[in-house]
Design a protein that fits this description.
The model has no long low-confidence stretch (mean pLDDT 96). The protein has an eight-stranded parallel sheet. The termini are far apart. It is of the alpha/beta class.
Length: 291
Amino acid sequence: MTAAVPHSVGLNRPARALPPLACDSHMHIFDPRFAPSPHWERTPPDAPVAAYRQLQQRLGTSRTVVVTPSTYGTDNACTLDALDQFGDDARGVAVVAHDVAAAELDRLHARRVRGLRVNFVSPQSWGETTTEMLTTLARKVARLPGWHLQVFMHPQQIVAWARVLAALPVPLVIDHLGRIDPAQGPAAEACGALRRLLDGGNTWVKLSGAYMRSTVHGPSYADTLPLGRALVQAAPERLVWGSDWPHTTEAPGTVNDADLVDLLQAWCGATAVMDRILVDNPAQLYGFGHC
C-alpha cells in the first residue's frame, strides 16, 4: 500500500509507470529552519525535502527542479539547502533582485541553479515587478551557460509584453500554462501570443498549475484539455511538466498529484511525447547530465 504523502491527497499512483529519469520541473521546498521574508503574510507550509521524496516514490520521478517561492523573497538559502540534499538529480531556479551582483550569480551557478524566476503575479519583496527588471536580469545571466529566465505572468501581460519577451537574450520559460483561462482555451488571445513565442524557438512552457484556473477541478481537470493539447501540438520539444507541490495556491487536501500526471498523459496522448516532456526536454533545459 502506498503511504500518504504530505500536501497530496489520495494513495493512487499514476495510471502508467513513468520512464527512468522523469523530472518534476516545478516544485517548492518550505523548511521551518528558514524564515520567510518580512513581506510575506501567509504562514508557509511544512514541506521539506523528506516529504517531497515521498512524492517522488509515489509518482515515479527521480529528477526535480526546486523553484524558490515568493515566500522567501530573494533569500535562496532554503532552495540551495534542498539542492545539496537532492544532489545531482536536482537543479534550481532562484529569485534575486534587479541589482544582483555577478559574484552572487556565479555562486548560484556553482550550486546547480540554472535560472531566475521573475514573478508578476504574487507579492514580491521588492514591490511591483517591471519589464525593466526582466530585461536587466536577462542581460546579467546571458553570460552564464545553460541559464534561462522563468516568468509567472497574467495572460494579459503575456499579450502586452510579447515583443519584450521575444527579444530576451536567454531562453524564456513561462509558468503554469500562462495562466490562460481554460474556458477560452486555444482561442484565448494569450494562447495566440504564447504560440507565437513558441514558434520563435526561444520560449518554453511549463505544463503545470492546471488547477489554478480550472472550474472542473480534479481528478480530470477536463476543461484544460483543449489548451494543454494545443500546446503539446504546437511545440512538444519545448514543454516541461511540473507538479507545483506543495500546491500553495490551493486549499489543503484538494490536489492529487497522481491526477496531475494522468492529466499530462491526457494532454499528450502518445507515450513517446509524454516521455519527451518528462525526460528529454528537462535534460536539455536544465542541463541534467552536465554539472
